[in-house]
Structure formats: C-alpha cells, structure tokens
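Possible regression after last week's pipeline update?

I re-ran a chain I had predicted before the update to compare outputs. Posting the input and the new output here so someone can diff against the archived version. Not blocking, just want to make sure nothing changed silently.
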Amino acid sequence: MASSFDRKTVLAGSVHPKRRWLILFAVMLAFLPVILDMTILHIAVPSLTLALEASSTQVLWIIDIYSLLMAGLLVPMGTLADRMGHRRLLLAGLVVVSLASGVAAFSTTSAMLIVGRILLAVGASMIMPCVLGIIRRTFEDPRERAMALGLWGTVGAAGAALGPLIGGALLEHFWWGSVFLINIPVVLLIFPIIAFALPRKEAVAPGKWQIHQAVLLIVGIISLVFAVKSGFAAKQPLWMVVLAAGVGLVALSLFVRSQLASADPMLDLSLFSRPTIVTGIAMAVVTSGALAGVELTVAQELQFVLGKSPLEAGLFMLPIMLAAGVGGPVAGFLSNRFGLRAVASLSLCAAAVSLAVLAQSDFHASSLLVPSLLAVLGLSLSIGLTASSIAIMGAVEAEKGGAAGSLEATGYELGAGLGITFFGVVLSAIYAASVVVPTGIAPDLAQTAMHSIGDTYVVAEKLSTPLAIALIDAGKQAFSTAHAMLLTLAASLIGVLALAVFFALKNAAPET
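New output (post-update):
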C-alpha cells in the first residue's frame, strides 16, 4: 500500500527533478540489449539453420525459448524488484545477459544454443520490469509520463527494428554467433552509466519475496504456454500436451488462492479489475505477436526467396526501423493531444491496412510501394505498442510500478512467443500444402523438404544440380504463397484488436 512507502523516496521525480531525464536515459540504455535479443536473431535464422543443421522444430525452440521463459519469469522478477530495489536487480540482470551472450555466441550445437537463450531470458526478465517500474516511479505527472514512455517506446521499436540491420551487418563479416557477442561491449559501455545515474537509495515494498508463490507462478505460466505451443505445433504426444495444460492450470489456481489468502501477496490481483490495464495487456499480446511473426516471415522471404544477403535484408527492412524510431514520441504527443482511445484505435487500424496491402504486394518490384508500406507499419505499430504502455502505467500507483511493468512485459513476451509459434506453425502448414516436390526425389527426402523452406534448402544440397534447382524453385513459390496468407492473417488479427480497443477504452480516465 502507498502508506507503507516513504513517498519522498518512492517518487524519484519529486526527489531528483533535475535528474529524472538522466534516469530515463539510463534505463533506456539498459533496455537496449534486451530488445536487440528479441529480433537480432531473426536475420540469422537461415545462417544458423545451415551451420548447426538445425531442424525446423529446433529453430522454433531456439527463437521461442527466450519468450517462453520470460513470460513465466517477468511477474516474479517484477515483484522481486519492488522488494529488493530496481537498481540492484537491473544491474544484476545486465551481468547475467553478458555472460549468457558468451554461451550463446560460441554454441556448437542446437542444444547448447537453446541453453544460452535460456540464460539470456533469465537476465532479460530481471531487466524489463525494472525499466518500466523506474519510469513509473520517476514521472508522476501524466503528461511527462506519456512523453517518457514515448521515448522509451522509441528505444524499444527502434531497437527491435535495428536488430535485423545490425545482425545483417555482423553476418556480412562474421559468423552467426556474432549477433549474440555484440551484447558484451554494449553492456560494458552502459553498465557504469546506469550505476551512476540511478539513485542508490530507493524505497522497497514491505514483506518478503515468497519463493513458493514465485515457483507456482513460473511453473503455471510456462506449463500452460508450453501446452498451447505444443498443441498448435502438434509436435508432442496428446498426453504430454494435456499433462502440461493440467499442471499449468493447477499451479495457477494454487497461485491465485495463495494470493487471495495472503496478507502480503506477491501480485495484486485487483490490477486485473481495471479495464484499462486489461486492454493494454491485450494490445501488447496481439501487437507484439503479429509483429514478431511478420518480422520473422519477411526476413526469411527476403533471404530464401529473393536471395538477399543478411545485410541486404536488413537494409530492405530499414523503413520499419526509421519509422518505428519516431513512433514513441509521436504516440506520447498524440495521446496528450487527442486522447489515448483515438490514438490506439487509429494506429492499429493503420497497421492492419498496411499489412493487408503488403500481403498483395510484389516484393520483387523496384517501386516505392513496399518500402512505404513498411514505414507505415513500423510507425503505426510503434505508436500502438507505446499506447499500451501509457494505458497500463497510467492506471497504477507508483508503488505498483514494478508489478504493472512486469504484467506489460509479460504481455509482450507471451505475444512474441505465441506469435512466433502460431505463425511458424501456420507457415509450415501452408508451405507443406503448397510446395510441389519434383519427381525423382526419394520419398524420405521429399517428406523432409516439405517441412519448411529451410529444410528444402538442406535437402537440395544433397541432390544433383537439376533436381536441386527445381526443388528450390518450388520451395520459393510455396513460401511466397504462405507469406502472403500470413500477412493477411496478421492484418485481420490487428483489425479486430483495433475495434476491441475502441470500445474497451470508451470510459478510460482522461489522465490515462
């Protein structure tokens, strides 16, 4: 409760009015390695697939394990930050990220890379709730907070878009592991800045961090998300999916009961009774899911189908980066000027329209249509994601900033993890139904080639030149078909979300 806190310490903006923008700059720097890890790997998927001879299932887990684990860890880490201090947990998270990056960079097998990604998820889950919690505590004025979250959104959107470009530049000169190794100099550069800028003394929430409650929540979320992922992919036996779902539901039920019965709950469940927070989380889940799925699909289209190098693919996606970089401040300004409801709904509508037109566009053409559509997509999604932050963080008290920030971040990670799985499964299904394997290829190789376009290229290396060319051509045609259908699906999902947000935010408080 607010009365349990030293208000002068909690409200960092009140104590350090001249330092609040320096504090914002510091936490934005801390967020940079986390956001880079979310998207920089997308551009390296073709390279690591061939280098590690990873199957389509292994590739999905290499990408997805990061979001899956963060979805389970973010809320416990957010409540831990409220109790032990955001500064301490944030700095510890940066250390874990740098160590994990070394493990991932020098992986020699798919299993080792998955372990590296697990460690990266642990470090990132320590950082993300602290960033949003510090912003909420530092900026009490709603208008200033909207601008601060807009600037934070710029780092998130621009960093996500910069990921493929940086990854492409690194892969042009180094091996695929360099996309992880880049984190280490970044952390070494920003660590002292953050240590200096953030106040050493800060109020912490009363009570102990209940480890058994944290374990219940982690097991519940991860088991349930695993069941959903496995059910989508149909890669696991039915009994395993049912067992995971059962374990997840039981664990979450026990967690909810423990929160309702506890005098010092880990998570204030009353936050879910606030429509603005629920709407913001829904925006985060759907928008980040669609964005992650689209980015991964476009990156593969550019390299596997159009034959672009990783750097060329990154440059092709440059309009998304540039537009997303200005979306955050624009969202803050427009929300203060026209209200959150209008900005959130219209930005999502613009994203849906751009995706629908992209689905029918020819990526081979040299016109400005595709780059323009990518710019509209980057700008509108950046505004939409920032709007979700403004909605959530504006609906909670400062002392609950860590918990609310962890809920928002969980929405992003659940969306990204489930989005990649959902789009990956749908892509594989459409691809398998569309690809026409040339005659003369052994049945077992033909079956493998139908799994994904990456598998098609792996199989082609084992064939004679005429058959290899024919198989790759068939794969390119099938992937383009699947690509168009996926973009259309993403447009539909975001269009439905725009309509839902318009009605859900009807009675949102003006200061939100």
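Follow-up from reviewer: compared with the archived run. Residues 465-504 form the longest helix (40 residues). Marking as no regression found.
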